[in-house]
Amino acid sequence: KWFNLSFTNGVASLLMELRNFALISNRNSFVEMIFKIIKSIPEKNITRSEESDYYNGIAGLLYIICDCYKKFNVDIDLYARNLIEYIVTDLFKRCDICGLWFQEEFYHQPLTGLAHGQSGYALALSKALPYINEGMRLKVTSQIQKCMDYEYNCYDNSEMNLPDYRKLLLKKGGDKSQKKFMYGYCSGILGTALVVSELSEELISFQKKEIWKMNAVQYLKKDILIGNDSLCCGTAGWIDYLASCHKNEEWSDELLKKIIFSINEQGYVFNGLEGVNEISLFKGMSGIGYSVLRYMGKYPSVLL
């Protein structure tokens, strides 16, 4: 019985882990387990899930289901195809009147970035395209482009970053026009740039791809560390992005050394706090270690 479906604490994370075990070990038993789990997910649990975004909700589940069918070249059966179309349909039902994913009680504008923002939805929807009917495919393609155009227009040139529009970042009585920024995959330029690197040129033009890539590199070359070493919100996410898009380029090697030197000098820092014994993957030491392993060798992503 799956009561949570997400990457952060649900069945999507289990599917991601099994996918990576299968890729690393080349053992078919993990692949069999993946598709057994997928076929055990009831549609009512999709509807029941309150969260929608890539990290916490059904968008992430959509991504990993479709990715497993693609990675392992498994023919999709009617049950799985219906499940994928059901998740896509349910995601569209959750769009606000603005046509994007927006919860006014929590945000003062639709969010940006991979984890909670529009590009995370776009990534998940892009994975579903081969498995949905033609009429739905046209609608999904249009929605992906709408999401990416929104984030493109949100880019802040002075900060070289995307704003985080969550209300929790505003001080009590704070001015909504005062932009706040995060620095990792949870919200910000790197999450979107990673998504863009995964999208086809049919979904986002080569010119736009180059602009996003250039913006991400400019941001990373600002030469300012941020007081957070985690994979979700901090510099481990930077290392993971380098491993995905800029491995072993001279400037990225230098940035890696700078981050490792900072950790060796200060110890682990999470959200500006030193001496926190946090061992988790997204927000702790495990994620830091894994991001370094990915940069040094051939290991599958735990984010995509």
Structural write-up:
With 304 residues, this protein is mostly helical. 52% of the residues lie in helices and 1% in strands. A two-stranded antiparallel ribbon has the order 1-2. A hairpin with a 2-residue loop joins strand 1 and strand 2.
Protein traits:
mainly alpha, two-stranded antiparallel sheet, 12 helices, 2 strands, 52% helix, 1% strand, globular
Low-confidence stretches are none
Find the structural class using helix and strand composition: mainly alpha
Count of DSSP strands:
2
Order of helices and strands: HHHHHHHHHHHEEH
| Strand order, sheet with most strands | 1-2
Q: What is the helix fraction of residues, given as a range?
A: 40-55%
Shape: globular
Q: Treating each run of at least 4 consecutive H or I residues as one helix, how many helices?
A: 12
Q: How many whole angstroms does the radius of gyration measure? A: 19 Å
- Mean pLDDT, as a whole number? 91
How would you sum up the major sheet? 2 strands, antiparallel
N→C terminal distance: 25 Å
Q: How much beta, percentage-wise?
A: under 5%
Summarize the structure.
By secondary structure, the chain is mostly helical.
Q: Secondary-structure blueprint of this entry?
A:
Elements: H1 11-25, H2 28-38, H3 43-48, H4 58-71, H5 78-93, H6 118-128, H7 134-154, H8 189-198, H9 206-220, H10 235-245, H11 250-266, E1 269-270, E2 273-274, H12 285-296
Antiparallel strand pairs: 1-2
